[in-house]
Specification:
The protein is built from five helices and two strands, in the order ββααααα. By secondary structure, the protein is mainly α. The chain has one domain.
Length: about 120
């Protein structure tokens, strides 16, 4: 039997390991913030002018969602939420490529694989 627990992407921020996972709540928060689909928001990462704000916002949303999930599972969890400003301190020129890659991989592994030959009505 396979392990059906959702798996995210581990990211290290100043020696603290956190996890990016695109839950439905995180996806809703991103879409509500931007008024467009997550795919459209992720495409903004390739725009040099929009990229810093998008990376900070998505990092904040994903890490806050992680902290909320941890508290839901264990009321004694001390995992902190992360504001957009704090995310801007966590993401630096030294780790921005790693963080960007982790965001994109986390999104990719969160969506189900589709087999184009499958009947969509099944």
């Amino acid at each position: 039997m396979s392990d059906l627990r959702p798996q995210g992407v581990k990211v290290n921020f100043d020696g603290v390991e956190r996890e990016f996972l695109f839950t439905l709540n995180a996806i809703d928060a991103i879409q509500e913030k931007y008024g467009k689909t997550v795919i459209e928001v992720l495409q903004d990462i390739s725009d040099q002018e929009k990229m810093p704000e998008v990376i900070k916002t998505i990092t904040s949303i994903l890490l806050t969602d992680e902290a909320e999930r941890a508290r839901w599972k264990d009321q004694n969890s001390k995992l902190p939420e992360v504001s957009k400003k704090e995310a801007g301190w966590l993401v630096t020129v030294d780790n921005i490529d790693e963080v960007t890659s982790a965001i994109l991989i986390a999104y990719r592994i969160s969506i189900p694989d589709t087999d184009e030959d499958e009947d969509p009505n099944q």
